[in-house]
Amino acid sequence: MIDTFLFDMGNVLVHFSHPLMCQQIADVCGSSAEEIRRLLFDQGWENEFERGELTEAQFQTRLENHFQRQINLPALVLAASDIFTLNAPMVPILQSLRRQGKRLVLLSNTSISHIEFVRREFDVLSFFDDFVLSYEVGAMKPQPAIFESALNKILCPPERCFYTDDIPAYIEAALRHGLQAEVFTTAASLEGQLARRGVVLS
C-alpha cells in the first residue's frame, strides 16, 4: 500500500523552457541568450540560485556587475520565471489521490522565483500537503540531503511512498533511499505505474 506520493515539479506538473528563460533574461539585460546560458549553466549561477545561495537581489547585482548596467528587478524576476505551462493531464491524477486521502509532497530543484510564479499562476500546488524545495534545503537532487529531508516529510516508511521524476538519475537516488520510484514520461504512463501498485484513479 502507498500512503504518500512525492512529485517532481518541472516537466511533471508543469513544463518549462530554459532557452526561453535565457532569451527573456537576455532581453532584460541587453545581452544574448548564449551569454546568459553561459552564466547560468556553464558558470553555475542557476544551481547557486536553486540551492538558495543567491537571493533574487544578489542575482540582480551579479548581472548588473557583469553587464555594467542597471537591471530592473521585477522585470528580471518575471523574465526568469514566465517559462512554465501547466501539464494539464496531471490535474485529475492529483485530484483523485487527494480524494483518496493520500499525502502529496512536492520534491523539486527550484528557486524562490520559480516556485512563487507557479504558485501564483496555476492551482496545481494547492493539492500538496508539504514541500521539499532545494533552495530551502540548501541541496539539490540527487544529493542525499534533499532526499533525507523528503523522508522526514512523507510521514510514512519509505517503501510506502511512491516518487515520480523525469530525470533517471534522481529516480536512482530515490531507490537508494528505499522509496518506490519510476521515471515520469506522461500522465498516462504514470497511471499505469500506479495501477501496477494497486492505486486506482477515479
Give the key terms.
alpha/beta; Rossmann fold; 50% helix; elongated
The CATH architecture classification of the largest domain is 3-Layer(aba) Sandwich
Order of helices and strands: EEHHHHHEHEHEHHEHEH
Structural class: alpha/beta
Biggest pleated sheet = 5 strands, parallel
Can you describe this structure?
With 202 residues, the chain is α/β, with parallel strands linked by helices. It folds into two domains: 4-15 and 85-195, Rossmann fold (3-Layer(aba) Sandwich), CATH 3.40.50.1000; 18-81. Helix content is 50%, strand content 14%. The protein has helices at residues 18-29, 33-42, 45-50, 56-67, 73-81, 90-99, 112-121, 134-137, 144-153, 168-176, 187-195; strands spanning 4-7, 14-16, 84-86, 103-108, 130-133, 161-165, 180-183. The strands form two sheets. A five-stranded parallel β-sheet has the order 5-4-1-6-7, sandwiched between helices. It has a two-stranded antiparallel sheet with strand order 2-3. Strand 4 (103-108), helix 7 (112-121) and strand 5 (130-133) form a beta-alpha-beta unit. Helix 1 packs across helix 2 (33-42), helix 1 packs antiparallel against helix 5 (73-81) and helix 5 packs across helix 7. The mean pLDDT is 97.
